[in-house]
Amino acid sequence: MEMRQSWYRAADTRTSRRTYLTQRLTPETAAKLRKMTEECNREGGLNMRFVEHGEELFQGLKGGGMLRGVPSYVALAAPKSLAHRQEKLGYYGELLVLECTAMGLGTCWVSGTYDHNGCKEQIRLTGDEELSAIITVGMVSPEKSLKEKVVSVAGRRRKPLSDWITPSQGLPDWVVQGVETARKAPSAMNSQPVQMRYESGAVQAFVDLPEGVHGLDLGIAMAHFELGAWSAGAQGKWKPGHNGYVFEL
Ligand SMILES: Cc1cc2nc3c(=O)[nH]c(=O)nc-3n(C[C@H](O)[C@H](O)[C@H](O)COP(=O)(O)O)c2cc1C
Fold first, then answer.
1. For every one of its 249 residues, what pLDDT tens digit does the chain have, with 9 covering 90 and above?
2. Domain 161-248 = CATH 3.40.50.720
3. Which of the four CATH numbers 3.40.50.720, 3.40.190.10, 3.40.109.10, 3.40.50.300 does domain 5-150 have?
4. Hey, where are the domains in the chain?
5. Which of 230, 216, 206 is nearest to 48 (CA)?
6. With the CA atoms of 32, 36, 42 and 47 taken in that order, what torsion angle do they form, in degrees rounded to the nearest 10?
């Protein structure tokens, strides 16, 4: 997927939104998101589904009542046989999030607080597929609701750059901009589990337990890093390495 300046700008303004307006997405917006989901699936070998009418999944207190009025969502599913499934879903899912943000929509990554079985039924998940999480999508008011503010306060603090990358001094500008963009990425419970290392002109990125939710966090941070580096003029791609992933120019 080609990087876009609008996504880089969106990384700055994105924040998880958990209260949605009652309006549905316009047919044009829904068509755009469906198309991008299909493109990501083709490129990544994924089976993500854009569910335009997903209201039922969050009705009442389903999913613990953390999210309200969700009209649509992207279900992050992939073949069980696909290697690096979690990182790929994280990477492409976050590009979708940034596209939504650029279009003025609200989003939230949700791996825990939703009705997993209800979702599997709604998207007709097959026995060969695994569902890792969903991304809620919808119109939002410019300001967060009081409830959203309370939930967000707990989870928006970011670790300093020196906790993300070793060494943290004397780094080229593209690496600094990559890490700064990765720092803005969402992560499950805001745990920011990704570690990076700069060595011999390349960046490695890894997490403990990539098979779980941290694999999603890693893919999300990789998408942000690539965007930041690209915006600083450094074009590179992530490739699987011995330990995690390697970003080379
Ligand atoms: C993989 C993943 C799973 C998440 N799961 C949930 C969830 O189940 N419920 C929820 O309310 N937020 C969830 N979040 C949102 C995080 O809490 C949020 O991204 C983090 O607190 C940082 O806040 P921000 O997104 O506003 O920058 C998840 C985020 C990620 C990346």
1. 999 999 999 999 999 999 999 899 999 999 999 999 999 999 999 999 999 999 999 987 777 788 999 999 999 999 999 999 999 999 999 999 999 999 999 999 999 999 999 999 999 999 999 999 999 999 999 999 888 888 887 678 999 999 999 999 999 999 999 999 999 999 999 999 999 999 999 999 999 999 999 999 999 999 999 999 999 999 999 999 988 999 999
2. no
3. 3.40.109.10
4. 5-150, 161-248
5. 216
6. -90
Longest dimension (CA), the chain: 53
Minimum CA distance residue for ligand 1 atom 13: 110
**Distance from chain centroid for Cα 189:** 13
Q: What is the pTM of this model?
A: 0.98
Ligand 1 pocket list (CB less than 6 A)? 15-16, 18, 66, 108-113, 133, 152, 155-156, 186-190, 213, 216-217, 220
